[in-house]
Amino acid sequence: MANSFDVIVIGAGPGGYMAAIRAAQLGLSTACIDEWKNEKGGPAPGGTCTNVGCIPSKALLQSSENFDQAGHHFADHGIGLSNLSIDIKKMLGRKDTVVKQNNDGILYLFKKNKVAFFHGRGSFSKAVEGGYEINIVGAKPETLIGKQIIVATGSSPRALPGTAFDETSVLSNDGALRIPAVPKTLGVIGAGVIGLEMGSVWRRLGAKVTVLEALPAFLGAVDQQVAAEAQKVFTKQGLDIQLGVKIGKVESGKKGVTVSYVDAKGADQELACEKLIVSIGRVPNTTGLNGEAVGLKLDERGFVEVDAECRTGLPGVWAIGDVVRGPMLAHKAEEEGVAVAERIVGQHGHVDFNTVPWVIYTSPEIAWVGQTEQQLKAAGKAYRVGTFPFMANGRARALGDTTGLVKFIADTKTDEVLGVHIIGPMASELIAEAVVAMEFKASSEDIARICHAHPSLSEATKEAALAVDKRALNF
Ligand SMILES: Cc1cc2nc3c(=O)[nH]c(=O)nc-3n(C[C@H](O)[C@H](O)[C@H](O)COP(=O)(O)OP(=O)(O)OC[C@H]3O[C@@H](n4cnc5c(N)ncnc54)[C@H](O)[C@@H]3O)c2cc1C
Fold first, then answer.
1. Which of 10, 22, 32, 54 should be mutated for ligand 1, with most atoms under 8 A from CB?
2. Is 89 exposed, middle or buried (0-12, 13-18, 19+ CB in 10 A)?
């Protein structure tokens, strides 16, 4: 007799594990299946985010930032260092420890919340009376029956056509997180979030990094003022960013990789690099799920087709996170997971994509929420803008990091905050206030009238809000 559950979640990335925990909290008997293996072949729940994404990338960004600070900025504080060195093996080992702590944390949370965890690949077998039969292939094959199924199988890196990842010379995010020694030269194809973050890690450690991007504009989805500032700063840091290129042949051999491309002016070029990171997007994970057995529909791009509330066309089958439309972000996946669990018990979970924050963890960090100026212009909406530079913020000066600005965009008529865009120190933390403001439909005046601690970076947020009404006090 197969094990029966109210809810079976396939995938234990941030979307799946949060959905499982919330479902269990709501009193539903819940199973979660995940196939990710650690180096010993054991379970490693947490998905892309924990194993080869958000968490390890931030661990390496911190290590490389510390190295960069020690090498270039400690002297400003009167701190002298001789023989500064970096032990890459140790740095990677620390990153692996951080990952393991997160894997173990999820297993602990499953136990605490009585979520039954199964290690292996889950696939649809057939529809049965009142639910679905799910097969698990793994160390211990099992068959489960679930009344409700949540597909949270995530995504995988997209390869360049004709150039597979070998993870030695041509690297996906996975290989980019475990390069064993600092390469002299590193090529990055794709100037998106992952490419810029990974490029930054290895540049800070000493690699000469060239970024090739097909689009003519740098960070096209980011507010143009912020994107222009970012391009200026990254170029000054030494990232060679080439836009509007057309990638041709990629050849890898013993000495490294050669990328042939046509530059924005139409001239043939060649980039020779020791390692090449390809970060040109991600594809949804649906192979191996055997969705065909039950008629699970995919859209034209291969994502599981869902409505605004993550319902697939099949009764009792939901899909969330990277495997469906919308931003490919861990916190978006998490919110969808929680919302679906709540909908299953008749509650009203809600996810508003307009208030999902975006962060690029470069230095300076870039973070934003809501609409950009270019989007508002295209929509013909009347708005007012207030900006405040970190250069005029006391805490930023004390930190020794005055790059960047905070930008508020508010509705001309109602003063409602429509978007907030930050480039600068701790932008990833500062953006939370803007998200709260937008969720509560705050006006820029609301933020401008709130007491912010002094000295703090958050005062730049208040000042940018004041600047909407042309009354910034410190600039
Ligand atoms: C380098 C990098 C850095 C990133 N940094 C950030 C960041 O800072 N912030 C952020 O918000 N996002 C970041 N992301 C994106 C983030 O990782 C994803 O948006 C997020 O992991 C999606 O969560 P998910 O639960 O939908 O899927 P995933 O995390 O991909 O998890 C899916 C899980 O399902 C498992 N699975 C798949 N098929 C099956 C099956 N048939 N049976 C059993 N298990 C299966 C997979 O093995 C995996 O464990 C980053 C991504 C990368 C690559």
1. 54
2. exposed
The angle that helices 14-25 and 88-112 make with each other, rounded to 10 degrees, is 20
Strand order in the sheet with 256-262: 246-253, 256-262, 268-273
Quick one: which atom of ligand 1 is closest to the CA of 327? 19
What count of other Cβ atoms lies within 10 Å of the Cβ of residue 350?
11
**Separation of alpha carbons 24 and 279, rounded Å:** 36
- What is the four-CA torsion angle of 54, 60, 66, 72, rounded to 10 degrees? -110
Instruction: For 100-156, write each residue's pLDDT tens digit.
Output: 999 999 999 999 999 999 999 999 999 999 999 999 999 889 999 999 999 999 999
Q: Which residue has the least CA distance to atom 21 on ligand 1?
A: 49
Element (H, E) at 369: strand 365-370
pLDDT at 255: 86
Residue 2 has a pLDDT of: 61
254: CB partners within 8 A, 6+ apart? none
CB atoms within 10 A of CB 473: 12
- Check if 454 is active-site: yes
Q: Examine residue 455 and say whether the peptide bond preceding it is cis (omega within 30 degrees of 0).
A: yes
Query: Which protein residue's CA is at the shortest distance from atom 27 of ligand 1?
Result: 154
**326-371 tens-digit pLDDT:** 999 999 999 999 999 999 999 999 999 999 999 999 999 999 999 9
Nearest protein Cα to ligand 1, atom 5? 54
The string of DSSP codes covering 208-241 is EEEEE-SSSSTTTTS-HHHHHHHHHHHHHHT-EE
pTM score: 0.97
CA dihedral (284, 286, 292, 298) in degrees, to 10, reads -10
Nearest-CA neighbor of 365 among 57, 136, 120, 152? 57
C-alpha 48 to ligand 1 mean position (Å): 3
**Is the Cβ atom of 11 under 6 angstroms away from ligand 1?**
yes
Measure the CA–CA gap between 471 and 460, rounded to whole angstroms: 13
3-state secondary structure string across 8-76: EEECCCHHHHHHHHHHHHCCCCEEEEECCECCCCCECCCHHHHHHCHHHHHHHHHHHHHHHHHHHCHHH
